[in-house]
Amino acid sequence: MLERQIEQLDVLIVGAGLSGIGAACHLARRCPDKTFAILEARKAMGGTWDLFRYPGIRSDSDMYTFGYKFRPWRNAKAIADGPSILSYIRETAAEYGVDKKIRYDRKVVSAAWSSDRAQWTVEVSCGESGAVSTIACNFLWMCCGYYSYDAGYSPDFPGCERFQGRLIHPQKWPEDLDYAGKRVVVVGSGATAVTLVPAMARTAGHVTMLQRTPTYMLSMSGTDVIANTLRRILPDRAVYALTRGKNLILSTLVYQLSQRRPELVKRMIKAQQRRKLGPDFDIERHFTPPYNPWEQRLCFVPDGDFYAALRENRASIVTDQIETFTPTGITLKSGAHLEADIIVTATGLNLLAFGGAALTVDGQPADIRGSVVYKGSMLSGMPNFAFVFGYTNASWTLRADLVCRYFCRLLNYMSGRGYRQVTPRLNGAEVGNLPFLDLSAGYIERARDRFPQQGSAKPWRFYQNYWLDTLMIRFGSIGDKWLEFNRGTRAFAPIHSNLVQSARQQER
Question: Measured between alpha carbons, how far is 83 from 81 in angstroms, rounded to an integer?
């Protein structure tokens, strides 16, 4: 019987969203000798920007910092809508030829590291059939985001089964939904709700945002006047670089001011809201959270569209708690009743680390929870494993670009010295024990035990600071005392299907 040899790759990228496409482009540009493929569990590239289809879907960051550093954003809109972002991702993938590296309907089920072979053996579920194929790679690069694509988070609302209208989560938006002239209640106060309300209010009969706790909101222009002016006289790349730098400085100032002078930032936000909403609006009740700015993510309101919907009575805001759903709406703790034809539960995500894949190292389950993040891109005790996780207080892609550039430097460093294995090691050092995700949002609190930890100082600290990360990740030394390099005991040894089958039987 002939043995079937398993495909061998230098790098296997998991996820074809914003991060995965960016990672592949960096790899193609900086490590052209490396073989790689991209596995995408869905039928299309784009990740979040292909999955979410709710009205008004847009970025919550400006595209000069949310776009890839190596490919300018040329659209006049600074706060872009979802379809524009999806087009940008697809065009980037085509321009750098990485669209041809994507294998769709391929979900990573498990990955097993062998120190003897210095490689990962990855089991992949293929399409609706669920047939399992196997790929071997030297490096496993997780770019699959941080939440489950299967379903969003919906609390167990009392009586929700009695509601006779349509109950929808934004992650599963139905294509046939007609909300024109309808009464809509949006449950939630985060970025999704703040986006949905003004978009639906354009045609709905009325939209009510029902929130348990207010969120800090800051209005900003949907276009960048300086960038659009500079574009008339400068090349795109120069405009992009200058605007990116400007916006980086401004966003850093807002975040640092929020950390150091929270009362001042609160006053600034309230002053803007009074100008937008008028003196009679109850800002204290509806726009004053019980925490400081940036303890949870700050919501941006492009061109004040959310405030305009409230001011023009196309939308309203209610701060209360749900007592129960009824056949015709929601009864609140206060006793009030909200009539609704459609209820949208913009209540967050189900967080998921590394796509839910089962990871093992030399036959032992990987201790994700007990590991510590190294330079925001690798895990202690995990050989030849990297991941992309962006900022929570700034544009995701800022950190993603830094991490991708670092990973390519690491690959070239290892190739130049004949190394086949690298593992971050704590070596007994006490580096601290802090949560990896440091926001206080409910969906994050529910999932802390599914994610690794961070330390209290570099390189184990997951900084929320682009400038510190630039020094540590981009300009820091590759060969520091925390990385253990190994040339491996074998070359890139071939794996055959009978060996894989034997290993599976032993595991059973």
Answer: 6
Class (C level, CATH) for 160-227+263-345: alpha beta
- pLDDT recorded at residue 4: 60
Start-end of CATH 3.50.50.60 domains in the chain: 7-149+350-499, 160-227+263-345
Where helices occur in 347-395 by DSSP H, the ranges are none
Pairing of strands 434-435, 453-454: antiparallel
- State the pTM of this model: 0.92
Query: From the DSSP assignment, how many helices (H) and strands (E) are in the chain?
Result: 14, 25
* Phi and psi, residue 281, nearest 5°: -75, 140
**Structure-block tokens of residue 51:** 């999955």
Q: Which residues pair with 385 in a beta bridge?
A: 140
Mean predicted confidence (pLDDT) in 450-461:
90
The residues with which 217 forms a beta bridge, in sequence order, are 299
Confidence label for 429 from pLDDT (cuts 50, 70 and 90): confident
Can you tell me the distance from the alpha carbon of 230 to that of 236, in angstroms, rounded to the nearest whole number?
A: 9
Fold of domain 7-149+350-499: FAD/NAD(P)-binding domain (3.50.50)
Torsion angle of alpha carbons 24, 27, 33, 38, nearest 10°? Answer: -20
Residue 368 corresponds to which tokens in the numbers above?
Answer: 């994700």
Give strand pairing partners of 77. Answer: 223
